[in-house]
Design goal:
Helices cover 30% and strands 22% of the residues. Strand 3 and strand 4 form a beta hairpin. It is built from 9 helices and 15 strands. An 8-stranded mixed β-sheet has the order 4-3-5-6-7-8-9-10, with helices on both faces. Strands 12-11-13-15-14 form a 5-stranded mixed β-sheet, with helices on both faces. By secondary structure, the chain is α+β, with helices and mostly antiparallel strands. The structure holds 1,6-di-O-phosphono-beta-D-fructofuranose and magnesium ion (2 copies). 1,6-di-O-phosphono-beta-D-fructofuranose binds next to strand 5. One magnesium ion binds next to strand 5. Belongs to the FBPase class 1 family. This is Fructose-1,6-bisphosphatase class 1.
Length: 346
């Protein structure tokens, strides 16, 4: 009887397209002999909540899921039902998982202390990103940042556990609920993307080692605020137009960021005369995507400095964000810092 030998020792097989998220996390953990498995479990908890929220987003057109919730959050924004549902689902998964001691959420005014004496991690989360697109069936997302607490485990949560700069993230990622649902994350060793297969209830590796093209021809900015932009930014946008770059703006940060990460491009939510700090939040939007961008070879600034080096001072603080292909972010920085008038003749 002939026996076919199947050589499984080839570790690259483990990271080949089609590998399940669970298996990928396990293999990655084995690369770090001192890893205790808690971060792996936390990533699995987030993936579980993402599957549940994915199911809800697919039903967003139905009365009991779509529409306004009837309350405003700390940002003064009207909460959508799905903002609240996603917030509950992720907070519950992080609580049940047992790895997390505190959560910072866009939908909660204060830090959520999970009263978990053994929790090692702090999670900052935007449970539902792109809320204005929920009811119009356009891609939306979830964004998360993971930090290790800095005070002793079991001791009361302190501000320094929460107010950590983005360069202290141990992991970060996003979920994109679009034509397909993807989970993209980094633990500081490159960026990998997984696509959800609903009939199997599994995320499968579909985008190994994601790399942002160094340059691109897509710019994403809400030009409705053009008149409020500073001269340098106007000049940069005119330059993009003169070179016939494509203007693409979905109005869901995760979706705009994801497209530009794959195709090459820049997303900008700048400071304006009206909002000198822009709109996006440092702790649970900008930091996570900036970690991903840098890990994929891209770049992220507030127009003047590296997002990941900003020392947070308040939970829901905002920051201007210029993120994406390295050459484009560098160039917009030059335009902003020189503040050049437009030299392009239309
Ligand atoms: O409508 P605007 O001002 O262009 O803002 C759109 C931006 O606001 C956001 O919706 C803010 O995020 P939330 O939906 O999580 O509040 C981003 O996803 C998006 O990029
Ligand atoms: Mg958001
Ligand atoms: Mg949100």
């Amino acid at each position: 009887m002939k026996i076919k030998h199947y050589t499984h020792s080839d570790s690259s097989l483990a990271y080949s397209v089609g590998t399940t998220l669970d298996r990928f996390i396990k293999m990655k953990q084995e690369e770090f002999p001192f890893a205790s498995g808690e971060l792996s479990q936390l990533l699995r908890d987030i993936a579980l909540a993402a599957k549940i929220v994915n199911r809800e987003t697919n039903r967003a057109g139905l009365a009991n899921i779509g529409g306004a919730f009837g309350q405003t959050n700390v940002q003064g924004e009207e909460q959508q039902k799905l903002d609240v549902i996603a917030n509950i689902r992720f907070t519950r998964a992080l609580t049940k998982g047992g790895e997390v001691c505190a959560v910072v959420s866009e939908e909660d005014d204060e830090v959520i202390d999970l009263q978990n004496g053994s929790g090692k991690y702090v999670v900052a989360i935007d449970p539902l990103d792109g809320s204005s697109n929920i009811d119009v069936n356009i891609s939306i997302g979830t964004i998360f940042s993971i930090y290790r607490r800095v005070t002793p485990i079991g001791s009361p949560i302190q501000p320094e556990d929460i107010m950590q700069p983005g360069n202290q993230q141990v992991a970060a990622g996003y979920v994109l609920y679009g034509s397909s649902t993807m989970l993209v994350y980094t633990t500081g060793h490159g960026v990998n993307g997984f696509t959800y297969e609903p009939s199997l209830g599994e995320f499968f590796l579909s985008h190994p080692n994601m790399c942002a093209p160094e340059d691109g021809k897509i710019y994403s900015v809400n030009e409705g605020s053009y008149n409020l932009f500073e001269p340098g930014l106007k000049a940069y946008i005119e330059k993009c137009k003169s070179q016939e770059y494509s203007a693409r703006y979905i109005g869901s940060l995760v979706a705009d960021f994801h497209r530009n990460l794959l195709k090459g491009g820049i997303y900008m939510y700048p400071a304006t005369a009206k909002s000198p700090k822009g709109k996006l939040r440092l702790l649970y939007e900008a930091n996570a995507l900036s970690f991903i961008a840098e890990q994929a070879g891209g770049m992220a600034t507030d127009g003047h400095g590296r997002i990941l080096d900003i020392q947070p001072t308040s939970l829901h603080q905002r920051t201007p964000l210029h993120i994406g292909s390295k050459k484009m972010v560098e160039e917009v920085g030059e335009f902003l810092n020189v503040g050049k008038e437009s030299t392009v003749k239309i």
